Amino acid sequence: MQPEQVQGAARLAEVRFAVAVAAGRQPGTVLLQNAQVVNVCTGEIVRTHVLLAGRLIAGVGEAFATAGAEQVVDLSGRWLVPGLIDGHVHLESALVTPAEYARAVLPRGVTAVVCDPHEIGNVAGLPGIQWLLQASAGLPMDVWVTVPSCVPATPLETAGAELGLAEMAALLDQPRVLGVAEIMNFPGVIAGDDRILARALLAERYGKVPDGHAPLLSGRALHAYLAAGIGSDHECTGTAEGLEKLRAGCFLMIREGSATRNLTALAPLITPRHTGRIGFVTDDRFPHDLLSAGGVDDLVRRAIALGVDPALAVQCATCNTARYFRLPRRGAVAPGYVADLAVLDDLAAFTVATVYKNGAPVATDGRLAVELPAAPPPTPAVTGTVRLPPLGPADLRLAAPAGEIRCLRLVPGQILTEQVWVQPRTEAGQVVADPERDLAKLVCVERHGRRGGVGVGLVTGLGLRAGAIASTVAHDHHNLMAAGTNDADLLAAARRLAELGGGFVAVAGGRVLAELPLPIAGLVTDQPLEQVRAALDRLEAAAGQLGVQIPAPFMALSFLGLAVIPELRLTDRGLVDVAAARLVPPGRLSAGG
Amino acid sequence: MQPEQVQGAARLAEVRFAVAVAAGRQPGTVLLQNAQVVNVCTGEIVRTHVLLAGRLIAGVGEAFATAGAEQVVDLSGRWLVPGLIDGHVHLESALVTPAEYARAVLPRGVTAVVCDPHEIGNVAGLPGIQWLLQASAGLPMDVWVTVPSCVPATPLETAGAELGLAEMAALLDQPRVLGVAEIMNFPGVIAGDDRILARALLAERYGKVPDGHAPLLSGRALHAYLAAGIGSDHECTGTAEGLEKLRAGCFLMIREGSATRNLTALAPLITPRHTGRIGFVTDDRFPHDLLSAGGVDDLVRRAIALGVDPALAVQCATCNTARYFRLPRRGAVAPGYVADLAVLDDLAAFTVATVYKNGAPVATDGRLAVELPAAPPPTPAVTGTVRLPPLGPADLRLAAPAGEIRCLRLVPGQILTEQVWVQPRTEAGQVVADPERDLAKLVCVERHGRRGGVGVGLVTGLGLRAGAIASTVAHDHHNLMAAGTNDADLLAAARRLAELGGGFVAVAGGRVLAELPLPIAGLVTDQPLEQVRAALDRLEAAAGQLGVQIPAPFMALSFLGLAVIPELRLTDRGLVDVAAARLVPPGRLSAGG
Fold first, then answer.
1. Residue B25 and residue A323: Cβ atoms within 8 Å?
2. CA–CA separation, A247 and B593 (whole Å)
3. CB of A58 less than 8 A from some CB of B
4. Gap from A395 CA to chain B (nearest CA, Å)
5. B225: closest chain A residue by CA
6. B129-185 pLDDT tens trace
7. Spatial separation of the C-alpha atoms in residues A86 and A480, rounded to whole Å
8. pLDDT per position as a tens digit, B221-252
9. Which is it for strands A69-74 and A28-39: parallel, antiparallel or unpaired?
10. Over the stretch B560-580, which tens digit does the pLDDT of each residue have?
């Protein structure tokens, strides 16, 4: 199925109407007079008039200055840009439903996102992604989907589901699905693993695109990766890397997320020569950033502040991404295009006055102007997903090996971790936390009701001096991840998250200090984003009382299980040496050896 | 079906091989060292190395300088460009089969064409287009197809077939079909005629593009036309018109054909700001031009001579067109792309040394280096297509009206005609030719065995002083068109073309002076292009003996029935006032009035 929401007789009717309006046989629905239109097709800013006909733009130009319309709005020189398109985002990272996400970014001019439901896919598989499709249907923001390609991400972890070729194909056949999402298993691609290559090629079969994920790949490795037909990358961090990828035909998605920020480094690549092949993406935006800085609008604003030509910056967040994803008639202020538009009070500051979606105003002065459709209730696939094994103190034991033990070290401000060797504190032959030396116990409990395994290790860098913090958001497998100074609080935290059906919690002395329930797949709440932010503030304050001083400690915790980013990680199956792509024992020698 | 020739297990195998070659696990097939690669993705020219793996490009860059390969070719600084793609061409205008067309342009670096089989569709309908698909399958040049949208072109003529929505849909479902061809009935689109709009929308349903044809449209009319979702135009003649179309989101196909030449006027639009939205097309190239100047390579050469940046000129004939038509992995020298390449001795002169198609050399120093597959025999649908009604002198009569009569006037060098009023010479109440005043009789005989009608009128501007010339190529209906100084020679010419199954003929005193049989649909021969040129030379010499001094007189004759280009035309149904889109009587008053 091709990506078009309106088909058949309804499509003929809307086109007939738009043609009649453009030709002057019928009045339009809205006439936007005296707009400074950012024309992304030519890179110009042209003061002119735009006539809408229902969902579509009927015409743009001087010829429409006094065209008939039900409503005439004189923009008096305000700017008009196409609605922005975020080319790659994990909506789950905002911890809210697609509707809540839309409520946050629509007033900022974001009228479409291409989301990769990798997180909910890892927890709830195909039914989880189907819930996301349902929960995002009918919103006044287009939620396009790319199919997660790596569920589970590695064989070193237990995810809640597997997405095989059959499940991926079922999704690719849907009209709102634009391609296969970032193929993170780049070693598998480069090694020519048929099972991985088949996932890239599946997109082709449906006339859709396979997205890439090629951090620091260069030379032969980069070309081997792209030779598989993969079309994009959003992991680029420098201009030399970016230019090499552009030269290699790659669509360069410049990312500015909460965890990883690449815009400043890559902005020099945004010139007319390259611009058509560059798109803006947010990847992951946490609630605070989303509320304070925004979504992909933040990249446009920052790019302009970095000196990028405003029309080129807007191109990167509109027509370029639409063209890459073969989205027809989106991302430009042009006849026949879907009337997704943002009126700006100021272009450079990207201050949005009014947003039109499908030709109708949906947000004004930073607030939604329409009711969002009632969210469908969470389906069984995405509720009750925290299914812990029976847990007792024995399950959290870590027998002390002779000598030093591996310990994860958080690197401030990065999702990288380092492996450090420490001499652990022990009690009765068991490794225990040592808050004096900032050594907390880290556990990862399989929570999908499958293998029931528990990984145990040490982490430093959190600053935890008492109690425990825990999360069921834990990339990419989303098992239960907890760090604590004592087993009793670790167990209490786990029990509380099981009761909540997932979320974040801070515990001390067996008492819950703060919590955020995330009952949908253990990843997302149906509560408003502002409430999520308030709960996170309370959680961070509680963590602070426990000694944690790093910013966004629950996000940091959620990345400690990410077995695809160096250096040392902990999953339900144990410690992972990422570079070697294998499980490793805690010590240099075996326990008691 | 998506446009990819290699699918399923074969696709997996070729990708696996390309990845292995790029990664260095297997030797490549060809290593092209020390090439000056025109990188159309970045607009740069980079001296580097290109490694091929069968049909695909495995890698590009310094890392491949000494990569293993079955064959190593040191290009010693010669240029390397992607194989050129002609975005819109009526192959039938070359009067030869697709294989012969390929033989002419492949050595010039043209590795793909997007053809609009409008002519054979008008004669032989869906089976005719299916013959063309068969006759172009397996060539070492990709022949992509757009489905003719206007067969017949107008209700004022009798074509050999109709292409309705069902026939169009059957074609759109085929993988080599990229879209719906130029929707010439722009008045129908602008008027909102559902039957015409449905043809544009049909392309969408298959995820393909509807091409446009919007000569001189501007303002509300242009926007009404594009509001129907139409994506391109190739009729643009000036920069102001071109800029308006680019601003309106239109993909601008710059045309340089035999009959109409727009490159010089539009070259100033080819700047980095616009280039991604511009493609080069030849539309119609007659045999002489094809042999002397070439195909779409001629546009690249001329554009560079006009001062266009060479890399941008190459973009317009490669990746831009591929992207517009959503052709995956074509039109760039990049990993994973199909290895369609041209090695140039000189970039500015665009002198082609070697051409690679699907990774294999297919032409060297201006000559094909491979055997073309044997053409399938013409099918019954495309043979015996000249089915004239019984014709006698009575059928060519034109009763003299009172006073003046309308006469078509050829405009030298254009396909426009003018209407002039002349006082005709008459004999026994019938209008006859008057060579002294350059008034020839013009007849159009329905030749598809359908209505059997004959249109009769006068033409001036040919210079015919004796005999007759005739053609079964007659845009768009391709009835038999003949101009003569006497009915006997007109009848003799028609009889001869019926015997030949179509073609061109020059007759005087009842004797054939020269002829070119075009037995396939009355449009095309299976003979070599050089023979066609020689026959055309003989025909033009014969026409010259009869007084015709204009260049390419048979081409001129073939446009006298084109009822969609102003001002006056003749079809089998009579004289057509194009602006009024209706049949008109020869005189101001009725015959004998």
1. no
2. 74
3. yes
4. 44
5. A19
6. 999 999 999 999 999 999 999 999 999 999 999 999 999 999 999 999 999 999 999
7. 30
8. 999 999 999 999 999 999 999 999 999 999 99
9. parallel
10. 999 988 899 999 999 999 999
The answer to whether A219 contacts chain B (CB < 8 Å) is yes
188-217 in chain B: CB under 8 A from chain A: 189-192, 194, 197-198, 200-201, 204-207
* N residues, chain A: 593
Asked if pLDDT for residue A592 goes beyond 60, the answer is no
Q: Is A230 on the interface with B (CB under 8 A)?
A: yes
Helix (H) or strand (E) holding A555: helix A553-558
CA angle B564, B570, B576 (to 5 degrees): 55
Cβ-proximal residues to A357 (8 Å cutoff; 6+ apart), any chain? A83, A106, A111, A140, A141, A340
Spatial neighbors of A296 by CB under 8 A, at least 6 apart, are A84, A85, A86, A87, A89, A105, A110, A113, A280, A281, A282, A317
pLDDT at B593: 39
Query: Going edge to edge, which strands form the sheet with B511-517?
Result: B417-422, B405-410, B454-460, B439-445, B480-484, B468-471, B503-508, B511-517
Structure confidence at residue B414 (pLDDT): 80
Q: What is the pLDDT of residue A590?
A: 56
Interface of A with B in 19-48 (CB under 8 A): 19-25, 39, 41-44, 46
Q: Return the structure tokens found at B288.
A: 């002489």
Q: How far apart are CA B272 and CA A271, in angstroms?
A: 9
| B489 cis-preceded (ω within 30 degrees of 0) | no
Measure Cα distances from B308 to B46, B128, B254, B345 in Å: 18, 39, 13, 19
State the amino acid at position A147 in one-letter form.
V
Chain B residues near residue A230 by CB distance under 8 angstroms: 336
DSSP state of A546: T
- In this structure, are residues B234 and B88 in contact, taking their beta carbons and an 8 Å threshold? yes
3-state secondary structure of A199: helix
Residue A7: pLDDT band by 50, 70, 90 thresholds?
confident
Can you tell me the distance from the alpha carbon of A33 to that of A46, in angstroms, rounded to the nearest whole number? Answer: 12
Q: What is the mean pLDDT of residues B335-362?
A: 98
Are B439 and B425 in contact, with CB atoms under 8 Å apart? yes
Radius of gyration of chain A (CA): 25
How far apart CA B379 and CA B147 sit, in angstroms, is: 20
Please name the amino acid found at residue A487. D
pLDDT tens-digit series, residues B470-524: 999 999 999 999 999 999 999 999 999 999 999 999 999 999 999 999 999 999 9
Q: Contact at 8 Å (CB) between B29 and B53?
A: yes
pTM listed for this prediction: 0.96
How far apart, in Å, are the Cα atoms of A239 and each of A88, A254, A262, A266, B485? 20, 11, 10, 5, 73
Q: What number of C-beta contacts closer than 8 Å exist between A and B?
A: 228
> What's residue A39's pLDDT?
98
Average pLDDT of the segment spanning A448-461: 97
B572: left (phi over 0), alpha (psi -120 to 50) or beta: alpha
Provide the H-helix boundaries in B173-218: 186-190, 194-205
Q: Which residue in the block uniquely carries the two structure tokens 């197809």?
A: B145
Which single residue is written with the structure tokens 């079955």? B70
**pLDDT class of B2 with cuts at 50, 70, 90:** low
Q: pLDDT above 70 covers what percent of chain B?
A: 99
